Amino acid sequence: MVVVMQVGANESQIESVIAALNDHGFDVHRSSGSERTVLGAVGVHPEFDPRHIELLDGVSDVHRVSEPYKFASRAWKSEPTEAKVGDVIIGGNELVVMAGPCSVESEEQIHSSAAAVAKAGATILRGGSFKPRSSPYAFQGLGENGLIMMREAADAHGLKVVTEMMEPAQADVIGQYADMIQIGARNMQNYPLLRVAGQTGLPVLLKRGLSATIKEWLMSAEYILAENNPNVVLCERGIRTFEPYTRNTLDLSAVPVIKSRSHLPIIVDPSHGTGLRNKVMPMARAGVAAGADGLMIEVHPDPDVALSDGPQSLFFDQFDELMSQVRDIAKAVGRTMPSRTD
Amino acid sequence: MVVVMQVGANESQIESVIAALNDHGFDVHRSSGSERTVLGAVGVHPEFDPRHIELLDGVSDVHRVSEPYKFASRAWKSEPTEAKVGDVIIGGNELVVMAGPCSVESEEQIHSSAAAVAKAGATILRGGSFKPRSSPYAFQGLGENGLIMMREAADAHGLKVVTEMMEPAQADVIGQYADMIQIGARNMQNYPLLRVAGQTGLPVLLKRGLSATIKEWLMSAEYILAENNPNVVLCERGIRTFEPYTRNTLDLSAVPVIKSRSHLPIIVDPSHGTGLRNKVMPMARAGVAAGADGLMIEVHPDPDVALSDGPQSLFFDQFDELMSQVRDIAKAVGRTMPSRTD
Amino acid sequence: MVVVMQVGANESQIESVIAALNDHGFDVHRSSGSERTVLGAVGVHPEFDPRHIELLDGVSDVHRVSEPYKFASRAWKSEPTEAKVGDVIIGGNELVVMAGPCSVESEEQIHSSAAAVAKAGATILRGGSFKPRSSPYAFQGLGENGLIMMREAADAHGLKVVTEMMEPAQADVIGQYADMIQIGARNMQNYPLLRVAGQTGLPVLLKRGLSATIKEWLMSAEYILAENNPNVVLCERGIRTFEPYTRNTLDLSAVPVIKSRSHLPIIVDPSHGTGLRNKVMPMARAGVAAGADGLMIEVHPDPDVALSDGPQSLFFDQFDELMSQVRDIAKAVGRTMPSRTD
Amino acid sequence: MVVVMQVGANESQIESVIAALNDHGFDVHRSSGSERTVLGAVGVHPEFDPRHIELLDGVSDVHRVSEPYKFASRAWKSEPTEAKVGDVIIGGNELVVMAGPCSVESEEQIHSSAAAVAKAGATILRGGSFKPRSSPYAFQGLGENGLIMMREAADAHGLKVVTEMMEPAQADVIGQYADMIQIGARNMQNYPLLRVAGQTGLPVLLKRGLSATIKEWLMSAEYILAENNPNVVLCERGIRTFEPYTRNTLDLSAVPVIKSRSHLPIIVDPSHGTGLRNKVMPMARAGVAAGADGLMIEVHPDPDVALSDGPQSLFFDQFDELMSQVRDIAKAVGRTMPSRTD
After folding, report:
1. How many CB atoms lie within 10 A of CB B306?
2. Were both Cys, which of A206, C224, D155, D304 would link to C198 (CB 3.0–4.6 Å)?
């Protein structure tokens, strides 16, 4: 921690700050320049709240030196993590595409979706059975029945299953059917949920909160990693800004930032990131060009009658076209993609 | 819902949109101006996703006409709600102050806090026993023991108790000790938690999420109200913006906006809203001047050793001074405050 | 400047960073903790771009130690500045209210406005004659004719005049008629304009840009102060956030922040800050309660026909009522207000 | 314009609103649903301020129907504009890269930069001679001398010149040496400057303001287009958000949005958009993958000693590598690039 004293801070103020730092267990290095004094506080106190010092007389600013996350940092693990979802590896050279409907709605819907996305080269089936809806009156998902349908559809087409967990009580039932647990953007700082997700031992897809800084996102990953669960995959899905022409602002610069700060894999979700079908393709291409390890894409056999998020879901033939475009981009950046299965 | 066609949209596009609206069950009124056509879609479909229409050929923009919340709106209930926390009424002419430490840390700490805040005129004791911390390694609260201590301290000084619930499984134990349940900012869209809070029948203090629009905040209130629990109190506690000199940006204009859009009471939390003790007093005064129904303030017998949020906690004598300032402001805006009890 | 090395940075990386800092003219103090090394770089280089060091191998983060502004800082001048607009003093114990129409539209309009605001206790007449409009097709102001009308109206009622300058070429004509130059939010970083404003020697009202941090705002003040013009008054008028229910988010916490970082006076403009008449009163009260040195308020004899910003302009009787409310709040925070003049 | 009445608005309120709309010259279509009444106001009043109606009793919300911009819209011109900078065409199938140093610093610097970028396939030389700096004490550019150097360097290597204009008084001197005028982000709403830029007849590169919505950006383009200057090119360069790990958040979704709302070409500036050299390459690739018509890239012969923005400038060999990567991405999205010239 670095404490910058005000220009003109007097000796007694400086000594009080040093004493306070010592009281909190820090060793202090003092540098007095011609204009002001700077104190370096050394010692490992990841939980110390720097505002304690910021409030003392004569202090101008306090800067944290260490990142508050540990297991999520590159400093802890310099090799990129390859998260394993069964035999699907996320974070290797091969890009991974997770695709499927926003919500599981019926056997027919999820089976046809699974067939379509598997054929085009996706390896993980996405679909929600417990849905976080901003309105209490909206469709809330099919619950366990939806999970059963999704498992069968995935198995029939050689896919893995990722689905969202909304509360700790759902861990058991989801663990029975899914290969990967998704934590949604609204729950990124739902700490009891993060702990339980970590404890399941299943790989976890952690979406970035709407207004979460990258540091906070990595802190939430830390909650899962701290349960000895190393298989965490981050998912950028758009942040909230002042721009109304898009639903969210997909922050693709998060991809290179995560790559330099953390060893965790990161994928991009342009469906939620833009909110409109005709923006999904360019932003999916851009995500791969920026270096993402994969994509999460919403598709639906008939988006116009989807019970949720139809307008951002692709038609099957659009998904097919998207996969072909993404394959070209992947090649241009030196990555591979699973081949089509038809 | 209003559908604005593009300038130059042709007749066949317009008819397709009308047909789609009819398919979705809307009655359509068509207005063709010299420049473009506007379609009014009438019918009650609060859950309809307007993006279905936004994507059709020839459509420029779609505007929702009705608010997605119902019970939270002024249209539903024009009289201001007076929420009852025991015999304390929030939303009447008398301002209500909730005060206490960020976390319950010990019997002595919570008892001295209760004594100090009661003396100065607060009527509800705040304190966390289950703490949402961004780091998994930080102090997580005393759990049920903390609740017991808080209940005793409150009873000893004639105060009510408000405390945060972090997951549905805590509802029973919190219900045993608290008079009001707090939903924290990070959980504003934790829908299972909102439902359970509503079902307890206890009054609920709903903090605004860091990046929640006022509309989303009212939608979350709707989750509680939809459980037949009318005692919802909103709490503005700062939103996330680009400004780094304050921890959050306290959005006081939310106070008059809520007053015009909703019948629910609203209080202001300048402690989290600013994050630094020396900003709490001016912003508490400003909150009352803007028309808030009360305040939530963090105090601590010895903020320098507080286990959480010490730097934004007031010393007892500062709280005393604040209450005296707020009393003057309250008077200036025609509101009353409970008297001091010493 | 403080340079935080990565955990695991090796000796050769550390030495390269030290060498680079020396090359840039810094003295370096090295602190090697058990976990990582921190380098304090001492020396006055206000213009050094810390990203030069941020990019070196082994560097984790770089923190600036000194504020980039000098004359605007409390460190430079600890006494609060009292800006003089003729005999009106801004930043003393007496609050100053600037009021008038958004645009000068006619002699009658500006005279009746001047009469009304003077009567209620305002001491400075506001009004635009060169208008920055987001549309090239909107009313652009009356130019010099408007300035003449405003001057006459102000003189007839004992008021000073503040008006906006949009480009350097307007300095002469505005200097002929106005007592104070306003720099609008959109021009906060129009540096040639700031320089010219400073060179006029007239007091300058500097509005905060829509997305300006407080640091950037003070840097823009520095441009004016650096021209030996000490009479700078800051004006908070709302920042851009994600919230659509208000036009801008009035950031009242800027008031205490400015008071601690700078010696410059600060006033609040709730008219632009909220954009709607019925939000102006509560936010004006809140601004004074937060410690502002004054207010800027838009009024109009007939807001429904105003050529610009009518919806956020108060009727004369509303302004009268507002002044009476503000007078009560001022008293509660120990400030005075000029008396009514009728 | 669409006026949504409150649920429960009474007949007299509805009639008053209709009367007010008629007074303002609108024709009104009334739709009364079971729950509420919606009024469609037809008539071309692009400058009408909808807040006039929003404030009337019984009104819930008012939505604008028409975009406030005209010449910038797809509705006005459905064919994509190909802007001409001499014989360089921006907005055709071939991507255009503008590259060069942040500031012109010396003959040697600008000549070597011109040589390097021309060789790699750039066709326009960028460089600032009048610099907008947030500090009054920072390097402000070489003025006309810099323009002369840049012109010579460009001519020597077959490049066009783009450079920033900061105030109307610079139009003549810039017009003498440059092929394209850049309006910087901080001046996006400097309307006198936009008008003058339009009047020069030179093509204009209009950067998006830090907190400008896409609608406001197009309104600023309208100022230039309204001067009968059709050669406007938009440049996305990052918006301001809450994320501190990047300097700005590059909003690549602006690319497909602009493509659907406007006919104007759009390029991407990942140098300012990210602020750090190692983020420039992935985001440049992403910009092209998203569909941009070109890139603006900062390069410098020796970034470590650059007088401005060195840390976001590429070394020559990095630029070379970037061009090769971008060429691959361009091919993947069906676009061409000028060949290398060595």
Report:
1. 23
2. C224
**Could you report the per-residue pLDDT of A54-100, keeping only the tens digit for each?**
888 888 888 776 677 888 988 888 899 999 999 999 999 999 999 99
- Dist. CA B43–CA D36, nearest whole Å: 10
Instruction: Grade residue A136 by pLDDT with cuts at 50, 70 and 90.
Output: confident
Contact C40 A2 (CB under 8 A): yes
- Rounded to an integer, what distance in angstroms lies between the CA atom of residue B30 and that of residue B14? 9
Q: Does A62 touch chain D (CB under 8 A)?
A: no
Cα–Cα dist D29/B190, whole Å: 42
Q: What pLDDT is attached to residue A274? A: 86
Residue C118, both tokens = 């003077």
To the nearest whole Å, the CA of B15 is away from the closest chain C CA by: 32
pLDDT of C136 reads: 81
Taking an 8 Å cut-off on Cβ atoms, the answer to whether C286 and B249 are in contact is no
What are the start and end residues of each CATH 3.30.70.1140 domain in chain C? 2-63
DSSP SS3 for A84 = strand
* Percentage of chain C exceeding pLDDT 90: 68
Question: D42 in contact with B at a CB cutoff of 8 Å?
Answer: yes
The reply to whether A242 touches chain C by the CB within 8 Å rule is: yes
Q: How many CB atoms lie within 10 A of CB C260?
A: 11
Q: pLDDT tens digit string along C109-146?
A: 999 999 999 999 999 999 999 988 877 877 888 999 99
The DSSP letter of residue C107 is: H
Query: Which part of chain C has CATH 3.20.20.70?
Result: 83-332
Instruction: Tell me, yes or no, if B191 comes closer than 8 A to chain A by beta carbon.
Output: yes
Look at residue C278 in the predicted model and tell me its pLDDT: 86
Q: Is C282 on the interface with A (CB under 8 A)?
A: no
Contacting subunits of D (3+ beta carbon pairs below 8 A): A, B, C
pLDDT (0 to 100) of residue B44:
60
A39, A89 Cβ separation under 8 angstroms: no
CATH number assigned to the domain covering C83-332: 3.20.20.70
Q: Which one-letter DSSP state was computed for residue C47? A: T
Which ipTM did the prediction report? 0.88
CATH class of C2-63: alpha beta
pTM of the shown model = 0.90
